[in-house]
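In this supplementary section we document a worked example of the pipeline. Step one takes a protein sequence of length 240 as its only input; no multiple sequence alignment statistics are reported here. Step two produces a three-dimensional model, which step three serialises into structure tokens for compact storage. The input and output of this example are shown verbatim.
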Amino acid sequence: MISIQDILSVLGDVTYKGNDQIKIIKLVQIDELKNGNELAWCSETNIEKLLTLNYGTVICSVNTFDSYFKPEMNYILCEDPRRAFKIVLELFFIDEKIKYSISSSCKISSSAQISKNVYIGENCIIEDKVVIGDDCFISHNTIIHKGTVIGNNVKIGSNNTIGGVGFGYVKEKDDSYSFIHHVGNVEIQDNVEIGNNNCIDRAVLGSTLICKNVKIDNLVHIAHGVTVGENSLLIANSMI
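The serialised model returned by step three reads:
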């Protein structure tokens, strides 16, 4: 159980309205808030749901609180409820720690360079001259092709293909198509997060570049030679 005072202490500039002696036992969706010891958060789009609640504690916006106040409820009021909920979730309700290890089922080239605190899951393939920085996480069945450079604190999900050839052809005089060899690579900079079942192709020349702090959802295709700028979000089924 987590005291409300402990929660408030990590959230910083927030206002609390309610019983300051309660303890939180679990986090729930706002529709499931039925117990005085449960905590949920409320977005602006769900603000009307505050009227339906009779129990528990809600993290909600300070700007919309007055119209929905109920004396039997507890409210943590802040500028960004989603971010506040994230902090509480990660500090008090997530106990999973990454155990850095490399699975014995992986195939890793002797010329690959792998730094410290790296996790590589089952059945991954790390090809020649791949560079993987510190504190990286690569989940199961992912292939990192030749020459890919991965920075620090990069998280890559399952079933990804990174650094494979792109779709590039020349039309010949007889109307047939011949493949253009891709001799570039993929560079993934620090703090990038990549979901599952994505394909990032290496460049024909130079690098396909995923810049710092980019977050990529599932089922995304990034073609050869693309640059994705810093702090971009790529949503599922994007094709670039």
